[in-house]
């Protein structure tokens, strides 16, 4: 099962680089099967132990016994994980973050692993590969609620991104001192909706010309930002902003590469749905004549 690695894979597996968050092919893979070492083919993880951490990389709370070795990372802080059989760099392992009952997160690069579906799953049609989009447009309650309405959107998660602080709380982000913005992580089916369509909808539900926040919410945590995952999204985002500028809008939205995303506290998720109300108080859909 040994195979040639691409330069990109070699960079991750042998030079311990990290792939950009939300760009790997297995971030949203929910199918049943086994994950193997891309370098030597040793089985490493089972799909039953994979969970959605929202961080942007495949996450597992357990490994196949003996398959994964731990080493102190060169940064002196983190714990690196490697394939026991061949030493391939997989990522890092974190304890005590509280995502699952086992309280462990193996944060693994998609480029370090290969996936094979379970035999019993054969004959079941392949579900489409899902994609990610991350937008910040002020209060995430409203952005989440309105992005959910787009056909082809599979899930929307409210959270924090763009800053340095690990695992920030709402109170910390609200201080405006962490560098994070309130943002949403959208998982969508690219066979049903294009990134461009999502992006246009995002621009139609918030005031992208406001430079100091969104509506009455003033502060760096409410700024308008698009976090692109991969070059393709970056190009589409630049084109979309150029279109708006050609229409005479002064666009305040910043374009940034996607970075680690932190899921917000549970009470922020599906906020308006839980309140049983369909109208948001902060965001409204105003169509643009594209
Ligand atoms: Zn290996």
What order do the helices and strands come in, and which of them pair?
Blueprint: H1 7-13, E1 33-37, E2 43-46, E3 50-51, E4 59-60, E5 68-72, E6 79-83, E7 89-95, E8 104-108, E9 113-117, E10 131-137, H2 140-147, E11 153-161, H3 170-174, E12 181-188, H4 195-204, E13 213-214, E14 217-218, E15 224-228, H5 231-246, E16 254-257, E17 261-263, H6 271-274
The structure holds zinc ion.
Q: Can you describe this structure in just a few lines?
A:
The chain is α+β, with helices and mostly antiparallel strands and 290 residues long. The chain is built from six helices and 17 strands. The protein folds into two domains: 8-119, Metal Binding Protein, Guanine Nucleotide Exchange Factor, Chain A (Beta Complex); 131-274, Peptide methionine sulphoxide reductase MsrA (Peptide Methionine Sulfoxide Reductase, Chain A, 2-Layer Sandwich).
Structure description:
The protein is an alpha+beta fold and 290 residues long. The protein has 2 domains: 8-119, Metal Binding Protein, Guanine Nucleotide Exchange Factor, Chain A (Beta Complex); 131-274, Peptide methionine sulphoxide reductase MsrA (Peptide Methionine Sulfoxide Reductase, Chain A, 2-Layer Sandwich), CATH 3.30.1060. It has 6 helices and 17 strands. The protein has helices at residues 7-13, 140-147, 170-174, 195-204, 231-246, 271-274; strands at residues 33-37, 43-46, 50-51, 59-60, 68-72, 79-83, 89-95, 104-108, 113-117, 131-137, 153-161, 181-188, 213-214, 217-218, 224-228, 254-257, 261-263. A 6-stranded antiparallel beta sheet has the order 3-4-8-7-6-5, with no helix packed on it. Helix 4 crosses helix 5. The model has no long low-confidence stretch (mean pLDDT 93). Bound molecules: zinc ion. The site of zinc ion has 8 residues, from loops. Residues 37, 39-40, 42, 83, 85-86, 88 line the site of zinc ion.
